[in-house]
Design goal:
single chain; alpha/beta; Rossmann fold; 6-stranded mixed sheet; 9 helices; about 25% strand; disordered C terminus; binds adenosine-5'-triphosphate
Length: about 260
Amino acid sequence: MLLQVTDLEMRYGPRLIQSGVSFGVERGTIFAIMGGSGCGKSTLLRHLVGLLAPAYGTVTIEGTDFWTADTATREQLRSGFGMLFQSGALWSSMSLLENVCLPLELQGKLDAPAREARAHEVLAWVGLEDAAHQLPADISGGMKKRAGLARAIVTEPPLLFLDEPSAGLDPISSRRLDDLVLELRERSGCAIVVVSHELPSLMAIADDGIFLDADSKRPIAHGRPRDLRDHASHPTVRAFLHREDPDHRPQPVGPQTPALNP
Ligand SMILES: Nc1ncnc2c1ncn2[C@@H]1O[C@H](COP(=O)(O)OP(=O)(O)OP(=O)(O)O)[C@@H](O)[C@H]1O
């Protein structure tokens, strides 16, 4: 198992956010963190990327317990994480090419020409080759997300975290990003953990997932989002996963609206 979370309890000071969180993510799997607003999805993501320490329980990466490991091991584990933040989090004064080169520079494995070549390759893959020299302020939200994805994967991390990748995107840009994520999984075999509210996106890409409940402060379902949508017994999970899902819109009741030009 690439990532294993066992009996995790998350708190801000004395305030309990979630407890009893356990799941594993294999290589080549897309895992969704689901739940209503404020249930603790971002908090869980912060625990997974090593920004917050568990109040109880463990986060294990390739068999190493992140929080009992020494600092050097932790840094080494962190260097294997790619992260796409909600906003794209690009450096505004740097071109897309410079933004995408940056993780390679920090990694220190390639010389400058090799870094540029690799960054061009990844920008071309996300369809931004022609925008390589533009600044983030001069491109659309969907392009920013794709640039953020390029930056997150340029070092080929084995574990990729996506925070609300489709938020704020129109349906076509969102679909395009989903296709890129699926292609990435095929090509690199990395494990991907995604936090998302976008049901069509979750249904399209996730193989497995966990549903956090704000009321009980515990996970209330675990499984493939499509299966949870169709078979979950918990009413909160069913209600959430049927919301806004175009495959499951209720059929109109009563007489059909008459055609405007019969
Ligand atoms: N730094 C913090 N200190 C204290 N409480 C926090 C902090 N960050 C978040 N919280 C609280 O923890 C709870 C979970 O927040 P979190 O952002 O993880 O939820 P979420 O599921 O990601 O929400 P959303 O879907 O709205 O983004 C919320 O009640 C929030 O107010």
